[in-house]
Amino acid sequence: MIPAIETGRLLLRPPRPEDAAAIALYLNDFAVAGNLARVPFPYRLSDARAWLRSQQREPEPEQTGFAIELAGAGYVGHIGYQAGGAGPIIGYWLGRPFWGRGVMSEAAAAAVAWFFSATGAPAIYSGVFHFNTASLALQKRLGFVETGRSRLLCLARGAEVEHIDTQLTRDVWKARQQ
């Protein structure tokens, strides 16, 4: 069961069918979709509904996703995990009206803390497209380190894009929490 996680301003909770309109609104913005690998552009309400249907299973922690609710604003983004070749991968996005307010920093710190407490995984993997400096700065604040560069297909851009690969180990996370 996906837990609900409360922070100072946020509620991280399982995504619900009624989130579809907000998901479609925020992901149908190239400034958001163009930073994500597997999100098409334009992004329609039918895309959001199909994605939400795919989330209606009981996930393992390595495949858990959280809707991000901001007090007074409702659904503003998503953060979650998927299984990857090297290990669990964290991905996230936030609607553009909420950028620059520390929302994703707060959500990501809570999601990482939950993940390391719920699993025995030694590390979390992630990364950003080379031009996404805000997301890379967020990852560095959490303790992620660059592990290499690759090329990754960005559906919204219709092209392979240079990707900065990152990793956060459990040991680094624990040390930074003390």
Automatic annotation (TrEMBL):
Keyword annotations of the record: Acyltransferase, Transferase
Residue ranges annotated for the N-acetyltransferase domain, each copy included: 10-171
Transmembrane segments: none
Domain of life: Bacteria
Entry annotated with the keyword Acyltransferase: yes
A Pfam family matched in the record: Acetyltransf_3
MF GO annotations: acyltransferase activity
Entries under InterPro entries matching the protein: Acyl_CoA_acyltransferase, GNAT_dom, N-acetyltransferase
EC number: 2.3.-.-
Family recorded in the similarity comment: Belongs to the acetyltransferase family. RimJ subfamily.
Protein name as catalogued: GNAT family N-acetyltransferase
